[in-house]
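Reviewer 2 asked us to include a model.

Predict the structure of this chain.
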Amino acid sequence: MLEPGYEGDSELTFALQSEFHKGFPLENLRPLLMSGNLHTQAAAAFLVAEISPRLSFNMNCVVAEIADLLDSKIARIRFDAIEALLGCTTPADGAILGGVMLRLDDEHAGVRWRVTQFIALRNAGSYGSRWKMPPRCARNRRSRSF
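Predicted model (C-alpha cells):
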C-alpha cells in the first residue's frame, strides 16, 4: 500500500482490516494515513471508518492523522474520515471537532450529510459514555428554570 504506484487493492485492504481486528497495532495506520498517494489514503480512510466500535477508542493514537484527511480533495476520503472521527474523538478534541463542523460547508452533499449524522449520533449519545455530561453538569442543567 505504501508503494508509489499503488492504485488500490480491495483484497489487501480487507486482509489488513482483518489483522487490525486480530490485534495488529492501530498506530501502524499512521504511514497509510499520511501517505501522499490518494489510493493509499482512501484505503486507510476506509479502514479507520470500518474499525469496529470496540477498537475505535484505541484509535486516539492516530486521531490527528485522521483529522488531516478532512482536507482531502477526495470527497470519499473526507466522508470516511468523519465516520472514523465519530468513533474515536472525545469532547477534549475541540479543534478536531471544529474541523468536522466546518465540513457543513463542504461542496459535496454526501460529506455534509455525514457531518449532520455525526452531530445527530453524538447528541443522541450513541457512541458511549465519554460524550455524556458529567453528573454534576446534568444536575445543574435540570435545576434551571426557564
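The longest helix spans residues 109-123. Confidence is low (pLDDT under 50) at residues 129-146. We have added this to the supplementary material.
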